[in-house]
Amino acid sequence: MAIKTLFIYFVVFGVQNQPVGSSAYKPQVEAISPTLPVDNALENQIRHSRDELVQNIHRIDREITNMDHTIEKLKRKQVRLFNVCIRSSVQLEFS
Length: 95
Hints:
mainly alpha
């Protein structure tokens, strides 16, 4: 009796026409709207701002490097003058 009821269910709902390996899950796919073109004026302004920022970074980096070199030179000069001063004071003591 159960087999006959199952067979009638399959015939009425059309299950016998489905392939054995087919899946019942079929997601709906929505169409994606195209993206709007980017405003060239805005893109150019952003590019210009970015280039200007990069140039400023390079300029500041060069200034820092120059200041580091200047500090290094002044420290060497300070040590040299300190040594000269010590030698002069030692010579004065022994004279």
